[in-house]
Specification:
alpha+beta; 4-stranded antiparallel β-sheet
Length: 210
């Protein structure tokens, strides 16, 4: 499929995420504009591991984020259906957002296929942002739209979405910022998935072009 050939051009927002260690630039033709009628549908979901009375504290010079709520899967997220695939994809990016806020990407990686080197490299970049007492600020990821693609009524197992990520700030163990923040990014993205043994897995993802 033609879309699969586009995976080699990684998403701009993810490259900026991996740029915990390097600089980031958004080269190449600008991505297509999505319809303005698309509305925001997702944000980091609630989880019982954080007491309901504990207010989230965003990261800053005072320290890393605290009381970050671990996401939970939306209904039917494990189903091999359009709704199930879309809900799984939302959960996948909610977990990625959680990883940026906490440095914990273990559960997120479990949803990726081992062949997705891009996914493992991204996880390594996030972990690097928390090594030696460092932490990240901002960086939350939101899915502004999610659409599981179909052909003749059959799932193609490709999902297109609009991803927004807050600016990323980089803090040293003493609370000083070690570099200029990475600006907020809004990027059309395509995710390639497979369904095995009753569960979805992300095989790859890339920038949506053309």
């Amino acid at each position: 499929m033609a879309e699969r050939l586009r995976r080699t051009q990684a998403t701009a927002w993810t490259l900026c995420a991996v740029a915990l260690l390097t600089s980031c630039s958004n080269e190449g033709p600008p991505p297509p504009q999505l319809p303005t009628s698309i509305s925001a549908t997702a944000s980091p979901a609630a989880d019982a591991t954080v007491p309901p009375t504990a207010s989230p504290i965003p990261a800053g010079a005072h320290g890393p984020a605290r009381n970050v709520v671990r996401p939970v899967m939306r209904p039917n997220g494990g189903d091999e259906s359009k709704e199930g695939l879309e809900n799984f994809t939302r959960y996948f990016f909610d977990l990625l957002s959680y990883g940026f806020e906490t440095g914990d990407v273990d559960d997120w990686l479990k949803l990726t296929d081992p062949s997705c080197k891009f996914c493992s490299n991204l996880a390594d970049g996030i972990r690097a942002g928390y090594e030696g007492g460092k932490w990240l600020g901002g960086a939350r990821v939101f899915t502004e739209s999610v659409d599981a693609m179909t052909k003749d009524g059959v799932l193609t197992r490709n999902v297109t979405l609009l991803v927004r990520q807050e600016e990323i700030r980089f803090f040293s163990p003493d609370g000083t910022e070690t570099r200029a923040p990475k600006a907020q990014i809004e990027q059309p993205t395509v995710v390639f998935l497979s369904y095995r043994e009753g569960a979805w897995f992300v095989d790859d993802m890339g920038r949506l072009v053309g």
